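Risk register update: the risk of archive-format incompatibility is retired. Evidence:
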Amino acid sequence: MTMDIHRILKRLPHRYPFLLVDRVLELEKNVRIKALKNVTINEPFFAGHFPARPVMPGVLTLEALAQTAALLSFESMDVEPGDDMVVYFVGIDGARFKRPVEPGDQLVLEASIERAKAGIYKYKSRASVGGETAVEAELMCTMRKVP
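Archived output:
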């Protein structure tokens, strides 16, 4: 299964400038997802990180991975997110930053479900550019209804 930006906007509550997934290339319910983020010089964070050598902040790469994992969760659970449902981080383990992400890079975002128990999902995730790992981490997330 694939998703274009229109379907992503229906699945995630994030909007510009915080929506960090442009397209889903592959999705296997309850198993894995592969998505894209096209990194452009127009990203608002590049103005200050760093003006002489623009680099995407590592925490935003982790956020892009979390958004990718959230898409997998929503699709796997057949849940239509609404204004009353959000996915929260509950943990990040083993985060490693191996390569800077720069303007012009196409970030490939991958997540696979390692475990789902008591409403907590654990994902193995990896962000890469041109096949080279930029960031890898284990992410733990949960869905919660909000008032």
